[in-house]
Amino acid sequence: xxxxxxxxxxxxxxxxxxxxxxxxxxxxxxxxxxxxxxxxxxxxxxxxxxxxxxxxxxxxxxxxxxxxxxxxxxxxxxxxxxxxxxxxxxxxxxxxxxxxxxxxxxxxxxxxxxxxxxxxxxxxxxxxxxxxxxxxxxxxxxxxxxxxxxxxxxxxxxxxxxxxxxxxxxxxxxxxxxxxxxxxxxxxxxxxxxxxxxxxxxxxxxxxxxxxxxxxxxxxxxxx
Length: 224
Known about the structure:
5 helices, rod-shaped, four-stranded mixed beta sheet, alpha+beta
């Protein structure tokens, strides 16, 4: 083989090796690109999942915080409303208490009121003898009421009854009016003073008054 032929063969071999190297390089690059893309996709998915997880956690925390804030505000508002309503009711009964004394000014009407209060006690006690206690300043009117009550009681029950005015134990000076009836040998005391009647009204009629002033409470299922 001549030198030219050897040189030609070497060139062919060199070109072949170079071609092989280029192709191998391409394969390596393609494979590396594929692995890089896979790894990149994997990392992106991991980071996305991490971000989603963090976002979901923060969203839940924010949602919980918002619910707590909303609940706190709702409770504060509810308490303010309840406080305002109670204040209104207290003022209502306070004004009613202030007006109680006015019912004693008209002696004719007050005499009728005391008579009815006495009769109420007589029917409840159903005894032959009772005592009535009143304010000292009302003794004159109450004595007349006692006589009226005795007559009406006899007409309706067909029974005589003895009613004494207990002047030894008058109602307190600060009382607004009304009477109390004592029976059972002094053991039973029916308090029909104005203050006690107002207190009973405040207790018994309060649900109805609340409904009249503020409307029906939709959240309440049971009423006294």
